[in-house]
Amino acid sequence: xRQFRPTGDPVADPANVLAGAGFRITVLDAxxxxxxxxxxxxxxxxxxxxxxxxxxxxxxFDVTETDDRLTIRTSLLQLVYDKRPFSTExxxxxxxxxxxxxxxxxxxxxxxxxxxxxxxADGAVPLEPGILSADGVTVxxxxxTVLLTDDGWxxxxxxxxxxxxxxxxxxxxxxALRAFYRLTGRKPLLPRFALGNWWSRYHRYSAExxxxxxxxxxxxxxxxxxxxxxxxxxxxxxxxxxxxxxxxYTWNRELFPDPPAFLAALHERGLATTLNxxxxxxxxxxxxxxxxxxRRLGVDxxxxxxxxxxxxxxxxxxxxxxxxxxxxxxxxxxxxxxxWQQGGVTRIPGLDPLWLLxxxxxxxxGRAGRRPLTFSRYAGVGSHRYPIGFSGDTVISWxxxxxxxxxxxxxxxVGYGWWSHDVGGHYFGSKDDELTVRWTQLGVFSPVMxxxxxxxxxxxxxPWRFGERAERIMTGFLRLRHRLVPYLYTxxxxxxxxxxxxxxxxxxxxxxxxxxYAVPHQFAFGDRLLVAPITTPADRATQLxxxxxxxxxxxWTDVFTGLVYRGGTTVTLHRDLDTIPVLAPAxxxxxxxxxxxxxxxxxxxxELRVYAGADGEFVLAEDRDDDRxxxxxxxxxxxxxxxxxxxxxxxxxxAARRYDVVxxxxxxVTGAEVxxxxxxxxxxxxxxxxxxxxxxxxxxxxxxxxxxxxxxxAGNPDxxxxxxxxxxxxxxxxxxxxxxxxxxxxxxxxxxxxxLAALDLERPLFDAIVELLLAYPA
Length: 778
What we know:
alpha+beta
């Protein structure tokens, strides 16, 4: 059980602890206190399901104490306690400068966390609390979770004890999250393959048909990095005396006659593989591994007695992993999809079987030095230690799509950053090309991109099963997902090292801005991109989807359209089906994989997009899933774009790379001087961009591009053409379009808006025109 032993230090520094009759208070950090109450004065120093490390450094705090009052002050909080059993009247914590106070037993203005599952959801579902509050104080109750013992097993808590953690960081949400990760464990690194496209479908595939499908994706130029095999990999049509077939550990050899060869073929194509399991029904006599498991557990194999699923028994759990899963892993299974839907009760009080499966499967998957991974539903605070999250079976609907970005961003408030959704929805609903395209676009800008659906001949997410336009757009976005992997993998390390989830609500960077709380569907995607997904159908007249967005102060450039916006305002953004609003701030440098090699590995060629308006820097992080890191620093400063020599483990990256440097939003870059040679610029891939290509840049040397031409930030010089195209495409009155065009060609932007308002234009068309007019006013 060595791999299951706790690795943190759960014992707090004695200097941070105050104790009295029935209570113990630990000041873990200036904004974090642990509050325990036990009438017998028995307190807990073992790690728990949620909390694994309490060994914070000593904290400066002041104590004022009388017979019936204890006051603790730090730089961030004030605690007042009457030294009696915890009560609303007798225990409170206030954040210094905060808007509110937490009193025991009363709610706070919690910003929400996440939920166990979206199974059956057709829109929003209630969220469990997070650890952030708009009032600046919130509490996590850890009183009912199980404990982790030194030998790698678990133990129940004493009944009738209280164990609370109060976070009081005001609106410094990042500081609260840093303390949370210190307390509950860091977010692990994902293997690189997990950041590419996953193919998943509940369908009765065979080895032949699955490989043929993967090859068709490859022929269409659509990259995949993970192959998900749903439950039909194992025997499902079984004798009823052995159960329903929902649980299984034996390959269906009619469909998969040579499993190792099948898994090897997927690996040869660059795909990792996960198999679906529903372990709740136990193990029955028809399974190939039943005899070995029975003997291991002291059951006569000849009896054919079913072996109950009992995860609370350590002997069963070890045998379950070693006899059922390890042999399949030896055949080539990379990780497991734990499709647990059977409740949250075991014979150990407080033990949720879902958490137990996540905990032990995840740790077991890393036993041979591999980067561990599992795929399962959320099981409460601390579940961020066991990525990746499977959000369950959602209904195919616009309401489901609209809730997913909210759900994903808010999960950061409890440190849960790697949700994987059924992109496109799972079941019910209707076939809708527009809905599927919009969902695919959101999926590309989600933590994990996994296409999935249930068992129906009429529901599947292959792009070629949709109309020609939808197929083209879906294909382009799925390719983009793999182009984003260098950026995503760097953000993966940032999440691990710095406690920064990939997807974050807008209020993290702007906690005092009310507008940041009014756009829960909008999010930061890493530290270089802002995403406002479109989750409603297009307007009939404009044929554009729309989303209300808040742009923080500064200059913002849409990565797809090249349109520049001046921030500090709320605006309705309109896009045709080809794009969604994804914006980069001034000075951003965005690395993308370039060329035709679409594997999720470290690419031989890179595209660097450099956005005008400010100096900028990006440090690209790469390894080979071995923590031997290579770092490449890119800077834009003083009219130069510099690709620094690679630092660290250069063996992790190609010895030389092609670079396509795309300058975005500059007034007139004509070329660059590189090592004494002049390279002319050519038109770039997006309006308002130019491209400078470097055929080969040595990792040990790097390169510097001294840009030539006008480097001032440009506005939107093509607005007249965009306005004409908008009016021309609008499905509306021709006379109305003519009137609007007359206004636009005879007024400046400021005076055109009131003149247009006097016309009888449909509101969506008016809003789309105003967006273009006022995006980046002179």
